Structures are given as structure tokens and as C-alpha cells.
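Quick one from the shared queue. A colleague (R.T.) flagged Sigma-70 family RNA polymerase sigma factor as missing a structural entry in our internal table.

Convert sequence to C-alpha cells.
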Amino acid sequence: MTDAELFEAILLDNEQAFNQLFERHWLKVYTVAHKYVRDEELALEIAHDIFLNIWNKRQELKINSFKSYVITAASYHAIRKRQTAKAIPVQYVDDYEYTEDAAYAISGRHEHNQGEVNIDEREINDTVNHLLTELPKRCREIYYMSRRDNLSITEIAERLDISKRTVENQLTIALKHLRTSLKVIILFSCFFK
């Protein structure tokens, strides 16, 4: 059975179909999560949470590509776990005095937060790059030439010796894939808050 057929069976509360999808995809989910968190137990926990959430919310989910859905979920969930693990605990101090050192420490926090913003941007770029690996090589190459190298459709067509129409079609495929996958990430941000 295809993933889509198995997911349809899951909507009818078929646990065997769920187990088949789990067996088929859990290693991919675990591998993606582990890439981000670099911790076996945490990656296993993420994989377990994702599949548990799919089972528990199966009637609410609209999944076009199960593989893309769970891989994107693994990326998103792992990034969130990693950010949570990096959070600095706040400690309460009874007799805290405001000093210049304290003021410097507080103003230094802004620079730390800017660093976190840079890390977030890098993680988003990592996620986009990971999503692009699911595309055919030529499609990926055209996307990078357009977005990374800032080449026009005409320039790409000339460099690759293909028609402008082909370039447009490949860019459309890449952008549609990213849009769909990123919608899944946004959906997961609602479920995992």
C-alpha cells in the first residue's frame, strides 16, 4: 500500500496501517532529528512524539506527502528542542544590587539575543537546504542559481543551455515544494507550542 492509502486507513482508526507507516518512516524521522540535536535519546523522543501526535490528531491533519510531512516535522521539532535546551535558566537572588557590572550584563544580553537571531536564521536556512535535497538535482541547481547567485531566468537558461520555459517550470516546482513544506512547519508550530 502507498503512504496515502495507509494514511486513509489511519483516518479509519486502523492501527496496523499506522504501524506500517511508523515502520516505513521512523528511521528517517530519527535520522533528521538526530542531525539537529546530536543526542540519541532526544532524537528517539522526537520521533516518538511526532508519530504519537499524528495518531492523536489524525482526524485534524491534512497530509499530501507523508514522507515530506514527517521529515519536516522532525526538522522543526528538533530545532525547537535544541533551542529549548540552549535556554539559560533564570535564578532568583534575594539581595541583588544594581551596579554598573549588572547594567553591563543586562546590556550584553542584547548582543546575546542577536546571536540567537543569527542562529535562528542559520537553522531556517538549514531547513530550507534540507527541503531542497528532496528535489531533483537540476531543479535544485536552478533554484540556487536564481536565489543564491541572483541570476535571471535568461542567464540561467543560457548557462545551462535550456529554454527559459524550462527554467521557469523548475523554479515553480522548487518554490511550490518549499511553500508546501514550510506550511507543514507552521502547522507543527501550532501543535507543539
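The domain at 126-184 is CATH 1.10.10.10 (Arc Repressor Mutant, subunit A).
The chain has two domains: 1-95, 126-184.
Added to the table.
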